[in-house]
Design goal:
- The chain has about 190 residues and is α/β, with parallel strands linked by helices.
- Strands 6-5-2-3-4-7 form a 6-stranded mixed beta sheet.
- The C terminus is likely disordered.
- Helix 1 runs parallel beside helix 3.
């Protein structure tokens, strides 16, 4: 039997970027084990220097990953409104969620219409806008979303960073780069 070695996978380095001066950044993510399956979300709001403002996560039962992503965005926006924050960049790795939240009109029969409308309303009143990032640039939010699976509540807020995540805050603040495998098509 002949064994061939695969060429090493190429990677690119990705890092979290702090918000521009005068802005805050909300990183959010959703997680689902199945479509639908056990689902949760998580996120955090950071300042210009990468400092923790607050974090959150929640367990939302059996849902799709897109629902989990939208719930993460919605809960983050609710915290922005509650804390009277403004000028917030919302970063997520889910383009489908960005497209749905950004759409001016959602069909009245859409199961998340009320939440999507409220997301747009909060974004407009608080001066927020959404941008896409790759998963590795959203590492921290992904970690909190996965933690949400273990929670008994649909939303828990942390005013101070959890001890387990403190080293990652420091990494992001100094520009730590995460490896992202480059995807390519197999030769035909």
């Amino acid at each position: 039997m002949r064994v061939e070695q695969l060429p090493p996978r190429k990677v690119t380095l990705v890092q979290w970027h702090p918000p521009s001066p005068g802005f805050l950044k909300l990183n959010t993510d959703g997680s689902a084990f199945g479509q639908p399956g056990p689902a949760s979300y998580g996120g955090l709001i950071r300042g210009e220097q990468g400092e923790w403002i607050c974090g959150y996560a929640g367990n939302i039962g059996i849902r799709t990953s897109l629902t989990a992503e939208i719930c993460g965005i919605y809960k983050g926006l609710c915290l922005i409104r509650e804390k009277n924050l403004c000028r917030v960049i919302i970063e997520t790795d889910c383009m489908a969620a960005i497209n749905l939240v950004s759409r001016e009109k959602v069909d009245d029969k859409h199961p998340m219409k009320r939440i999507l409308d409220e997301c747009r309303e909060i974004m407009a009143s608080c001066g927020c806008f959404m941008v896409h990032t790759v998963g590795e640039g959203n590492f921290f939010a992904d970690m909190l979303a996965k933690l949400g699976h273990w929670l008994q509540s649909d939303c828990v807020e942390w005013r101070d960073p959890l001890l387990v995540v403190t080293p990652y805050l420091s990494r992001d603040a100094v520009g730590f780069k995460y490896k992202r495998p480059l995807r390519h098509c197999a030769p035909k």
